[in-house]
Design goal:
This protein is 74% helix and 0% strand. It is globular and about 55 Å long.
């Protein structure tokens, strides 16, 4: 059980550090892209065609750097991470933070919320990995190996 708990804390710190670095990179990095993550009216129009494309029942819509579903994920992930961190701290120190747990409806509600957000994270990661290997495999290869797949292989 100690190994599982330590892995839990390792991934917690990884999530928080990754979130802070990504936030900094979005606003202050060499290739800032905070303005490309915000949803706009074009995204609302292309959301349904993008869903249809991912379900293999439509053509790929014209989108910018990020499609509308990516933008929703990239906006919701930091919010989810903050809620997950707050509920995790409450669960780690339940007696000291019992008044904070009351804002969520008690310790059982905090535990339930933490659990639901865990499954949301798992679902987003699973969908992301699936889409990487079905819709963006060449970009995956380029990102990790610096190579673009051509007609003869690599």
């Amino acid at each position: 059980m100690n190994l599982v708990r330590n892995l839990h804390f390792f991934f917690m710190y990884s999530l928080i550090i990754n979130g802070i670095v990504r936030f900094y990179y979005s606003f202050f990095g060499k290739y800032k892209d905070y303005d490309e993550i915000v949803l706009n009216s074009r995204d609302i129009k292309t959301m349904w065609p993008q869903i249809k494309y991912y379900l293999f029942i439509g053509n790929h819509p014209e989108v910018g750097k990020y499609n509308p579903l990516q933008k929703i994920a990239y906006i919701s992930l930091p919010i989810m991470a903050v809620v997950q961190a707050i509920t995790g701290v409450i669960l780690y120190k339940p007696e000291q933070l019992s008044s904070l747990a009351g804002y969520f409806g008690g310790l059982a509600a905090v535990r339930g919320l933490h659990y639901i957000f865990m499954w949301l994270f798992i679902a987003i990661v699973a969908i992301h990995v699936y889409l990487v290997f079905t819709a963006a495999y060449e970009q995956f290869l380029f990102m990790f190996f610096g190579k673009i797949k051509n007609q003869k292989g690599m």
